[in-house]
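Bug report (template v2)

What were you trying to do?
Predict the complex of my protein with magnesium ion.

What happened?
Run completed; filing so the output is reviewed.

Input:
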Amino acid sequence: MNNLSDEQTIFALASGVGKAGIAVFRISGPSATDALRALSKKELPEPRRATRVQLLEPKTKDILDYGLAVYFPGPASFTGEDVIELHVHGGRAVIAGITDALVKLDDVRLAEAGEFTRRAFENGKLDLTAAEGLADLVNSETAAQRQQAQRQLQGDLGLIYDDWRDRLLKAIALFEAEIDFSDEDLPLDLHEQVAEQIGEITNEISAHLDDSGHGQILRHGLYITIIGPPNAGKSSLLNRLSQRDVAIVSETAGTTRDVIEVHLELEGYPVIIADTAGLRDVHDEIESEGVRRAEERAHQADLKLAVFDGAKWPDKDPHTRALIDDSALVVVNKSDLLDKIDFDYLAISAETGDGFDILLERLKKEVEERCHLSASPALTRTRHRSALENCLENLKRFPDAPESELKAEDLRLAARALGRITGRVDVEEILDIIFKEFCIGK
Ligand SMILES: Nc1nc2c(ncn2[C@@H]2O[C@H](COP(=O)(O)OP(=O)(O)OP(=O)(O)O)[C@@H](O)[C@H]2O)c(=O)[nH]1
Ligand SMILES: [Mg+2]
């Protein structure tokens, strides 16, 4: 852990950039209180109480603004250090004036990206999963994303990983005791106890990993790609779904070339819908690049929305058919041109809006299935997934390792992989448990 007194004092505009009613500066570090004194020429306000201050340029004594100061003495602050918040008027000149005045102070500098949260982590205020949760919360755009991020920020996900790690460390302690003191009076079923505990942890981690990625999908949004032959009405469909005129619509086949993305919210879930070039064999260089991109997007999508052209029915374009699989929802567009509906697909009309209520219901169901908020906190990042996979590999090697020392090493590596997720990577802890629980000095 870092020595706090070595840290420089940092500050940053905590509120958004640009004109606003109020702007908030955050100052953290050993000189935070000096910084406030330098700007306000008054005694420190009472802790955690918003206090009106006049802010002056320290040298020229120009009045920068009248605002509020809040003092959070460390360690009971976000970063664990002394923190000062300044609430000022959100005009560009006010912000520039205060930034200038702070930069000029000795021992105070502008914070780097994520530095406040990093200090909070280093001072044990939150673990790495909570820090990631905070980043997700700031980036969240829909209600479900917000809920997932809140949960992670409150430490729910970290608790699960720490619990596995604690249990693993206990199992290691038992196991090492067996190696070190096999001649002494240790319970006979120790080995079975360890194997049983490792088995339980292995099962729980496997179940957590077997989640179809819904936590990750919810975090970045569900990717839906619209595919189909030229002129089927893909761009018209995108425009109606987004209720905006985002993509060019024309009767010329091959109008769309690039991928056009729209971010939407469906039932609180984030979706990113992409319109693509019509699929067909072409020699035109630009259009064939468009088709390549369309196919690439189709493969990357969480869900494909395959559109057939009702004007050509019952012709079902073979390029589109080739891309239809379990993750495809098929619709036939231009239902207004069809005399009768003699198929099982959903008939819609991007022109009249016919069938769109059903289409939206179906999309919502699909989205809900793929990125629902689960009862227990979900894995939200590839970083967690690979650490857990690494942990499992080591746990699975454990039963077959030929020697006790190797088995113990497998367990240690597994615990370390879990520790990496929350940021607890201290082997000393294993030793602590051994010495505490087994009274070696007896
Ligand atoms: N009658 C009818 N015409 C439609 C409907 N949807 C789209 N169209 C027309 O079909 C033509 C093609 O529509 P687009 O949305 O550009 O088709 P697209 O699939 O994006 O075509 P490309 O970008 O060339 O692949 C346009 O003239 C639209 O006005 C519909 O539901 N009914
Ligand atoms: Mg188009």
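What did the reviewer find?
Residues 1-5, 433-442 have pLDDT under 50 and may be disordered. The first strand starts at residue 9 and ends at 13.
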